[in-house]
Amino acid sequence: MAKTLSNVISLEFYNKKTNKIEKTFDQIKRVAKFIGRANDPTKCIGNKNTKILLANIADQINRSKTGIIFIDHDWISEITEARRRQNTNIIDELTDIFHFDYHRFIIFEGEKKCYGYTVKYTDDGIERINNPELFYPELFNKKFQINSKKNYSIEGKKLPDIAQKIALHEAKNCAIHAQVQYRDLDILDINTDLSDLCSSEDSSLGNESQDPKNQDTNFISSNRTELEANTEFHSMSRVDRMIAREQARRERDALEGNSFEEILARAKAQRDKERLVLTKQQETAGAEPPKVVPDQKPQGPTPNSELLEFARQEMLQVKEQQNDTHTRNGNVYHGNKLLNEFEFTDDLIDVVLEKSDKPHFSRERVRAIMRNIVVSNPNLRIWGGKNAFINYMVKAINNEKEFTKEEKAQSLAEMKRKEAEQVMYDFQHRVIRYF
Predict the structure, then answer these.
(1) Which residues form a coiled coil (predicted)?
(2) Which of these, 221, 230, 219, lies nearest to 196 by C-alpha position?
């Protein structure tokens, strides 16, 4: 207790400017940049909020009676403006100054506290705050390291050479003047200047060999050399240089006969030629007279043409019926279909109810019976068409069993009993069923 009070007194200091004794709150904030992290002493503690948290915890401990305080994450987050994970990282940086003990539940100073820390100084925590240079010498020397190259009081400020400075200034002014003058020119003047930049190409072409590959290589190299050697080219902006290079490339293509305009003209001429040939072929094919055989009589409508057309249609219908006719057990049937190919319309259901022995059945029940039969017999075929299907369904309706009220009640009771037995079995054997 006495040791804690003596430490508290030693943390106060006398401010000569204000002639007052001030708390360590401001002092700690000033010296915090010389205090290293517990997990990495070569680095100072984190951001501004971490330094404020250090000063707040120290001030709270100094004001306490026992030298121990209780803080939680809500109190820490008000200072750091961070969440629990970041608060834990900040606490790890301060473990060499403060001793943190986490408690899920504790009675602190007669009050119940949950999910927080009890904080107190470590054995040398006060000394680390008062004299950080003793514990973090590398960090302290790094902050006060003097750079001799920047110490003007010793070496003085180095000034550049006057002649070099004047030359750089004149070159800069010339470049600006050339750039402004070039941008103020008309588009025709730009083309003229660009042609002047590439004027050396004609002379180089006359002196080179007749080999096309050598001409292209020499022309490109001479073009690039002339552009780079020109003083105006270096004073141009990046966009102007690109324009100059593109114009030089187009002039080179024009001399070789590969310019964009010439290629486009050749393509248009080829397209027009192909169109002309195609038009002539179409005219020749359309103007060709039909070939007439002298011994052949002209064809025309005969009086028996309608009769022949009718006979042809009858033959097609007979073939379709033959394709749809099947033989089973020596008998011929028409309309072989699967059960699911028939449509359960209301008219069909009404016909089935009229022919059946149970006309009091509802349409929904008949439709449900039909669907159950189709689902249970997907590959079943009906021989004989719609009438055979109706007879098949009439037999199914007649075979449907009718339950009395007592039988229905018994069946429901039996179902409930089976469900109860299943539930009891699952409970006894710890069976979990997923639905």
Answers:
(1) 394-421
(2) 230
